[in-house]
Write a structure and sequence with these properties.
- By secondary structure, the protein is an alpha+beta fold.
- It has one domain (15-240).
- Helix content is 25%, strand content 9%.
- It is built from three helices and five strands; from the N terminus they run H-H-E-E-E-H-E-E.
- The protein has helices at residues 15-65, 80-86, 179-182; strands at residues 129-132, 155-159, 173-174, 218-223, 228-232.
- Strands 3-1-2-4-5 form a five-stranded mixed beta sheet.
- Helix 1 (15-65) crosses helix 2 (80-86).
- The longest helix is centred in the first third of the chain and has 51 residues, at 15-65.
- The N and C termini lie far apart (105 Å).
């Protein structure tokens, strides 16, 4: 007697099953995509902090070799201080120019017609970082680190607002709020070291010489003892920029 075996074919997905799968994929995408974006931004912030640590350490090494003096800033927007410090960095020469630009900068920073390279050490180094204008004033001699009362608490260099009209470069000095460059509260006034500095400008719309809080509301800075740290907006005090304040 011949036995016939029948195999039941599985039916296709029902509409409800298909909609359920689509809904699950949508939920997973909603969870994963923001997480990936957040991880990417955190990575950029970490690289930026590492860059500034390199800048801070190079400044310390330079000062140790030059009677405790910081490098001169140069004049105008010429990044003389960056060129000087690049030769004091402990990384391959080909990578030194990129150290002075934050990977999270929103405006692509364009090279000039005379870019820095190991074979062209006097070329231009593109910047999104700037130095403390009170310590390294443009057009004047830089100060000695010995004048800084609390080097671990004083900002030396920081991420800055970009200038869209200048190839995305940042001006090479932090001069705003004005107390940074002037180191004074104005004629006849006193300064409260615990007061918080202004954060009135935090965008990339002009050559404004302010620090930029581009990493989730935080600005990365290098301090005068060489370490780097992130400050949240509204967290920087006068005692972090007035280098003679206790």
């Amino acid at each position: 007697m011949k036995v016939h075996t029948f195999c039941r074919r599985r039916s296709a997905f029902t509409l409800i099953e298909l909609l359920t799968v689509i809904a699950i994929i949508g939920i997973l995408a909603a969870i994963i995509i923001p997480t990936v974006g957040s991880v990417r931004e955190s990575a950029k912030a970490s690289v930026c902090l590492s860059n500034l640590r390199q800048v801070g350490l190079a400044a310390i090494v330079y000062a140790n070799d030059n009677k405790n003096l910081l490098p001169d800033a140069g004049t105008g927007d010429d990044p003389a201080w960056a060129r000087t410090l690049s030769s004091y960095m402990t990384i391959p020469a080909a990578q030194r120019a990129s150290i002075f630009t934050c990977p999270g900068a929103l405006i692509p920073v364009e090279e000039t017609t005379n870019p820095y390279s190991p074979s062209n050490p006097t070329g231009d180094i593109v910047l999104s970082y700037g130095m403390h204008a009170g310590l390294m004033p443009r057009g004047s001699k830089a100060l000695s680190l010995s004048k800084v009362v609390r080097p671990a608490k004083i900002i030396l260099c920081a991420d800055m607002c970009q200038d869209p009209n200048n190839k995305g470069w940042s001006p090479n000095s932090i001069e705003q709020p004005s107390i940074i460059a002037s180191q004074s509260g104005g004629r006849g006034s006193s300064i409260d070291p615990a007061a918080y500095i202004s954060t009135a400008t935090d965008d990339d719309t002009a050559s404004n010489r302010w620090m930029r809080y581009r990493h989730k509301g935080k600005v990365n800075v290098a301090m005068c003892d060489g370490h780097a740290v992130a400050f949240a907006k509204g967290q920087i005090q006068n005692r972090n920029v007035i280098y003679t304040a206790e």
